[in-house]
Every structure is written in structure tokens, then in C-alpha cells.
Amino acid sequence: MKEDFLHYIWKYNKIRSNDLKTTDGSSLQILSVGSHNTENSGSDFFNSSLFIDDQKWAGNVEIHIKSSDWYIHGHETDKNYDNVILHVVWEDDVAIYRKDNSKIPALELKELVDPEVFAAYENLVLSKEKSTWLTCAKLLSQVPEFNIIRWKKQVYIERLLQKSEVIFALTKNTHNDWEAVLYKMIAKGFGLNANGEAFAAMVNSFPYNLIKKYSKRPMQLEALFFGQLKLLTVEIEDPYYQELQREYAFLKHKHKLSQEGLLSAEFFRLRPQNFPTIRLSQLAALLSKHNQLFTIVTTCDSLGQFYDAFSVKTSSYWERHYTFGKVSKRNVKQTSKSFIDLLVMNVVVPFLFAYNRSRGVEDHSKLLSIMESLQPEKNTVIREFEKSGMSMENAMDSQAYLQLKSQYCVKKKCLQCAFGNYFLNQYSV
Questions:
Q1: pLDDT digits (tens, 9 = 90+) for 36-45
Q2: Of the four listed, 73, 241, 284, 356, which is most buried by Cβ atoms within 10 Å?
């Protein structure tokens, strides 16, 4: 038994009685369950209203497994609970009093919940099945398509809202410089999962004005990036490598650059086209290609325009190299559409969503349309949902299911999930 089940029972009025009474025998009529408090401290439901006998009450409702949890949680000394008008509990094991010594009425639920509802809850939320985190896998095919579409959109917006908070934190660190924030996010995106944190630490190790200063000199940008990522530390008989070393030594001295706390770039288990050397050269090329990248990104209206904006290739040296000093077959290494898709999905759309929010823009239809034009991701999480009958039509779908897994499924928040609510709502009271 968890408190969230009792929240569900109260919120959706799954109480099996039309003649409710408090544990003191007073008649109870629920006029409004109130607003569910899912984030802030204080009572579980705000602005509830009810009749106890002939007296109308307005205030808050607190919910516990046992009445004595009130004291375990220290509510008796917390002024946030002074306005509680009803204590809803599974078991009323002790009387609770306000500061003025008046008793808080209690509603005990253990005899008022349909056994089928509780059994469904146990099967869904308290499942002992360890082979999958998706405990409702066998039930998902029962959910109507309309419910699925509506919930996926809501969950994806939740994902964007979460990412917005991270982006807003970046704006504080850059004194509200959205152009610098975009640059930092794009740099991290070029690092992908393997080197994203290393690339992010690297671009945070020097001021953004250095990028603007050397934006038309891609070789200097490469030297700056490679040097800060500790890729120029050994001696290699290679003219371009040695030129980068000299250039980086000059930049390091001139701008007092430090490598303290920076991460080394990873090559292990990466496909050659994703080697940090290749991605850093492409990043330098992108920043050299667009002196006004912020303006371009914020004015693009279609996926095709993003393909044009982010389509860049490495400097000529990397056409015959993947690592320094080792020659390979000539290959023009241009950012692929699949790589640009990842940038749009993980960087551009979240950035534009946050930027729009900062300006009070609430219409996100263009961003959702872009996500719907991208192919869905393929990974173990997505395959688990697909095995359960969920279709993946586009990137918004796959992003929504990634959010569902991380924020609901693994946390057993089935009662906050529209799917879990649908299953339990099949049982009437």
C-alpha cells in the first residue's frame, strides 16, 4: 500500500459508499475533492469543500496510510497543515488535533474501497515481475487510440518543460545570452552521448566571445577545440597536427586558457564517423559557416531548412584521416541527415521551446510539426513499447515514450499515468 493509491481513490472518488461518515460518526458529504498538490510542500489536496453534519467546510485535505503518520511526518509543528479540514486515511489508529485542541475529522477508507480496484492496483503498481519495467505491457493494447495520442503529446510537452528548466539555468550562467546558450547546446549535441559532457565542459572553459573572434578562421577553432580536449598533448610527425599544436599554444597563452577539470575525449566503441576529431572539425566548420547561427535557427520554419543550416563537412585534412597521423581512404565527411535529425530533436526543438517560453509564446505547433516529420529513434526502450503494441510513427512518439519510461514506469507512477488511470477506471464503485 502506498499513499498515491489513496490519492487516486480520493481524487477520482473511488469510494464505495453514498452514506459517508467520519470515524466519529458524523455525516460527510464531499462537494469538491480540491486540487491535487503534486509538487509543493503542504497538504495533498488544496481548496477542498465538504459538509460535515450540517456545517460546510473549505480548506485542505491530507492523506496518509495511518493517522499516526501525521506525527511521523511532523505535521503537528508545520503551519502548512493548519488549514486541514479532513484527514483521509486507510487506517485511523490515533486521533489528530489542531493547535487549538480541536480534533481533525478523519475518513477511514479500508472498508470503502472495492476489492477489485485494490487488486488491479496491486497487479499494476505493486507487481513483483522483474523481467520488465513496463508492468502494464499486457494491457496496453486495450487503451483507445485517442487516449494514447492525447497522452503522448502531454508527456512530450512535459519532457520539453523539464529540458526548459535546464536551459533557463544556462541563460542565468550566460547573463541571458541566448546566442551563447544555443552555441553551448549545439556543441554538446555534436559530442553525442559518448562525448557530450566532454564537449560541454570544453566550451564552458572559455568565453563565448572567443568563438565570435575566430569564427572566420576554422583552423584556429579546431586548435582551440582539440587543445582544450587534450587531443594535442603527444608528439606526432604530422604537419597539420604540429600546426594545430603551435596555434593552440599561442591561443592558450594569449587567452590564459586552462584545462583544469576538463574531460578527455572518448574514442572507444564509437564508429569512426562519430570520432570526436571528426565531430569537432564539423563543429568548427558550422561555426565558421554561420556568423549568425542564432538568427538562422530561430527563423527556420521546416526540417529542410535545418538540413541546409547544419549541413557542413570537415576541413580537408579529415577527408583522409579519422585520427591524427593515420592516413585513410579519402572520404568527404559531411554531417548526415540522421545526425542532423538528432541535433534538431535533442538540441534545436528544446532550445526553441524554452526560447519561446521566455518570450511568452505558448503556441508550439510548429515545433511539434517538426518532431512529427522526424523518424522515431530506435533503442531498447522503444522496442519494449513496440512489443506491447505501441506504434512509433515519428520522433515525438519515441521522445514521449522515453519520457514515460524514465518519469513514470521505472518510478511506478502508474496512478499519475493516463494508461494506468484508464486500467483502474474500468472498475466502477
A1: 998 778 999 9
A2: 284
